[in-house]
Amino acid sequence: MTVNILFAAKAERWDSYRTPLTAALRAAGIDFDLRTDFAPADVDYIVYAPNSTVQDFTPYTRLRAVLNLWAGVEDVVDNDTLHVPLARMVDHGLTQGMIEWVTGHVLRHHLEMDKHLFGQDGVWRTHVPPLAQDRPVTILGMGELGRACAATLAGLGFPVTGWGRTARTVPDVTTCHGANGLDAALSQAQILVLLLPDTPATANILSADTLAMLPRGAHILNPGRGTLIDDTDLLAALDSGHIARATLDVFRTEPLPANHPYWAHPKVTVTPHIASATRETSASRVIAENIRRGEAGEPFLNLVDRSLGY
Ligand code: NAP
What we know:
Blueprint: E1 3-8, H1 11-27, E2 32-35, E3 45-48, E4 65-68, E5 86-87, H2 92-110, H3 113-117, E6 137-140, H4 144-155, E7 160-164, E8 173-177, H5 178-187, E9 191-194, H6 208-213, E10 218-222, H7 231-240, E11 243-248, H8 261-264, E12 268-270, H9 280-296
Parallel strand pairs: 1-2, 1-3, 3-4, 4-5, 6-7, 6-9, 7-8, 9-10, 10-11, 11-12
C-alpha cells in the first residue's frame, strides 16, 4: 500500500529536500506519495520542522511517526497533541559540520588567533601558545555530537574530558557523569564546549556557580542551545576576567537582537546558529530508513525520550 508522507517545513526546505528525499525513498524500496499537502487523516508519516504550520497533530488520525529534520526537539517534545513516536535527526552531515565548527573554534581559541587577526596594530606579540597536549578541553554533552567532537579533539592531542547524564565510554576521552561529575569536568577545563540539549534539567547549567568551577581564564564555546547559559552571569564572568573569551552560536532569542550586549562585547564572538545544519542528502537517507523500518515493523532510529525531553 502507498505510504503517504507529509513534508511539513518551510517552503524553501521543500525546494531543497524534494529531490534528495524522493531519491532516498525510492532507494529504500518504499511505495510512497510525498507531498506538502494531504488530508490529515490520510497521512502516515510527517517529515517535520518544528517551525512549520503543523502544530496540532490531533487530525492526523493514522499517523505512525513524526520524523524531525532537526537534532534539537525542544519545540515539539512537549506538544500534548503528539501521541506517536518522535524521531530526531542524527545525520552524518550534521555531525561532520559540528566537528568542523567545534574543532575550528577550539583551535582558534587555543592558538589565540584573534590576537593576531584583530590586533594588526604594530605590536609584536611573541607569546607562543602551548601545545594541544597542555590545553585541557571539556565537553558537556556526550551524545552524537559531543562524542564525535571529543574523538576528533583527542585525536589532535587535546586532553578531553566529557560529561553527560549517564556513563559513556569514548576512546582516549576521560568521561564523567551526573551532578557529582560536573565539578571534576569543569575544574580542569581551559576550553569548555557546550553540546547539551535544551531541557528543563539543562537550563542555565552554566551559571555563576558553575562558571566559578572553571579555572580563571577559561574559554567557552556554545554550539548547543542558548538556554544552557545564564547570560547575565556569563557577561559578569567575562567582565571580571574569570572567563577569557566566549564564542556563542545559539541564543535564547534568535536572531540575537541587535542591541544585545553580546554583539558589542570585546570578548564575545557571535556566530548566527550556523555551527551545523542538517544536510539534505544524508538526512534524506535517515528519514527514508526510518520509514522503511516503520513499514517493516522494525524499531525506529533516533527516538526521542519524551520524559527526558531529548
Ligand atoms: P544527543 O545525542 O541527544 O546527546 C545529548 C547529550 O546530552 C547526551 O550525552 C546526554 O546524556 C546529555 N544530557 C542530556 N541531558 C543532560 C543532563 N540533564 N545532564 C547531563 N547530561 C545531559 O544530542 P546531539 O545530537 O549530540 O545534539 C546535542 C545538541 O546540539 C542538540 O540538542 C542541539 O540543541 C544542539 N545542536 C546545535 C546545532 C547548531 O547548529 N548550533 C546543530 C545541531 C545540534 P546521556 O549520554 O546520558 O543521554
